[in-house]
Amino acid sequence: MKRIRIGSGAGYSGDRIEPAVELAEKGDIDYLVFECLAERTIAIAQQARMKDPGSGYDPLLADRMHAVLRACSEKGIKIITNMGAANPIAAAAKVREIAQSLNLRKLKIAAVLGDDVLDILGNGDYIDDTGLPVARLGDKLLSANAYLGAQPLVEALAQGADIVITGRAADPALVMAPLIHEFGWAMDDWHRLGQGTLIGHLLECAGQITGGYFADPGHKDVAGLARLGFPIGEVAEDGSAVITKVAGSGGQVTAATCKEQILYEIHDPSAYLTPDVVADFSGVRVAEIGPDRVRISGATGRARPDTLKVSIGYIDSYIGEGQISYAGPGALDRARLALDIVAERLKIIGLKASEIRYDILGVDAMHGAKLSASSPAPYEVRLRVAGRTETLKEAIRIGNEVETLYTCGPAGGGGATKSAKDIVAVLSTLLPRQQVKTAVHFEET
Amino acid sequence: MQLRAIAHSRAGDKGDISNISVIAYDMKDYPLLEKYVTAERVKEHFSDIVHGTVRRYALPGLGALNFVMLDALGGGVTRSLALDAHGKCLSSAILSLEIPEPDAQSR
Asked: For chain B, how are helix, strand and coil distributed in percent, rounded to 5?
């Protein structure tokens, strides 16, 4: 039976660079996938593109391509990534430039278009997931991108693309596309598409299935996290798959690492909605069949939804924040006094904030008073005050009131920091899929 | 004993919804998870943090439970005021849940 090997070179935009190089050079892979587009990243990229029309793609695109293009070109490894963010065409042009500067063989680079549906959403009566009309956002609306399925990526591969660059696409689609292309799976073969979605889901976070984000000393020990190997999915025509990694790299692939990732960001395991299939992971089985080799089976699926999810980026608010530390005997009492002082000060100055939060780091910042109640007082603590405001000017006042604890607060406060920033947040809505028209643009070296 | 003795966990986020898996190290301990780690207990454990409903999905084939908690992340990672805006550390917090020792149950 035909098999292909797909490597996952990044689990998020800022992920390590070297594991992908290791995959390209030693992984014996056919495809290298980079999933780098978090929910609001595309809205921030859209802001960048509005300032400079040549930008708007992933900030590490050039670094990653410089690192892997030569090996991929020499070994015939195809690259698939959503690093196009808000500007896949500019990203494709950038990759063409890099390939030319490295004097590589002729390469065909595809940019997948059509996810940007801002014009459609700006001109219709659409309701977002809060139940309110999208139109209310007015000029605070930054971006609207539909989650594309695998189809346009498959078209790019069918037309001979060596590198496929998308904006917003469903994360598993980056892995589904090569499976559909190589094995000729039908777009209504729900069983195989369900299994393909599981494999894509397992690979998309890269090191999170090879022992990254897993270690808990004494309970779950993992060796070699400083040189963690990223995963390879070895997939057969029938959809059966083995997850593995480059021999000798750090980390581990075990039943336990795979189980954690199967359920990562999953709600109802029998209904994982994607643009290509409603996948069903409820009957999935894992089996360790060798060192760092885990067989994954049992996913299935049923007919895809008629609508596509759209992620809407908008300017939500501003957040101001201040922090200061206390240490030594009585540290916690002084931090609590400082907290009360700041709370009173924010009242006195008439701060306009819709939400305010007081945390004592080292005590109750993560999970509140109840879960932390039984722990003894620590040697050092840090007070943190954060609030949501409608203007930047108002947000700045929050950190200032923490900083003035230096001269006006309890004894021995140190290391005060403050910040204020605008918050780009995301909402979502659904669009009938026929309203989303995709296209593929090519750059060739 | 703490749940940590027999299970591991990972948390994920989508919008204002947190999901937490609880996975038995040993498949033979899975019935303990099913019996003692109920949606009601998880909701109570996280009463400071989770303001919506908690739903539990069982995956006996994996020896795992999946908890889906609504209104759990201060508006979601993109706008939350929380230090851990993703709620990633919730995976460790659930492992402090107390459950009876297996020996104590068989006696």
From this structure: 30, 30, 45
Residues of chain B with pLDDT under 50: 107
Spell out which residues of chain A touch residue B19, defining contact as CB-CB under 8 Å: 263, 265-267
- Which positions in chain B touch A268 (Cβ < 8 Å)? 57, 68
Q: Decide: B54 and B22 in contact? Cβ < 8 Å.
A: no
Cβ contact B8–A370 (<8 Å): no
Average pLDDT, chain A: 96
Question: What type of residue sits at position A370?
Answer: K
Q: How far does the CA of residue B11 sit from the closest CA of chain A (Å)? A: 7
Name residue B39's amino acid: A
Q: Tell me whether strands A163-165 and A108-113 are parallel, antiparallel or unpaired.
A: parallel
In angstroms, the separation between the Cα of residue A378 and the nearest Cα of chain B is: 18
Give me the amino acid identity at A267. Answer: H
What pLDDT was estimated at residue A439?
98
Residue pair A358/A343 in contact by the 8 Å Cβ criterion:
yes
Say what the pLDDT of residue B105 is: 55
ipTM: 0.93
Q: Where are the domains of chain A?
A: 3-117+144-310+430-444, 312-428
A211: alpha, beta or left? (left if phi > 0; alpha if psi -120 to 50) = left
* Number of folded domains that form chain B: 1
Tell me: domain A312-428, CATH 3.30.70.1150, correct?
yes
Residues spanned by the domain of B7:
3-106
User: Rounded to whole angstroms, what are the CA distances from A144 to A116, A124, A289, A423?
Assistant: 6, 13, 44, 16
Residue among A158, A150, A86 at smallest CA distance from A115: A86
Predicted local distance difference test score (pLDDT) of residue B104: 57
Closest by Cα among A73, A81, A21 to A203 = A81
Residue A297, phi then psi, degrees to nearest 5: -145, 170
Residues of A in contact with B89 (CB under 8 A): 366-367
Rg of chain A in Å (alpha carbons): 24
- Please count the other Cβ atoms lying within 10 Å of the Cβ belonging to residue A408: 12
Q: What distance in Å separates the CA atoms of residue A192 and residue A116, rounded to the nearest whole number? A: 29
Question: Strands B54-59 and B64-69: what pairing?
Answer: antiparallel
pLDDT, mean of residues A334-356: 97
- CATH code: domain of residue B46: 3.30.70
Instruction: Determine how many CB atoms are found less than 10 A away from the CB of residue B26.
Output: 9
Which candidate, B69, B17, B80, B77, places its Cα nearest to that of B40? B69
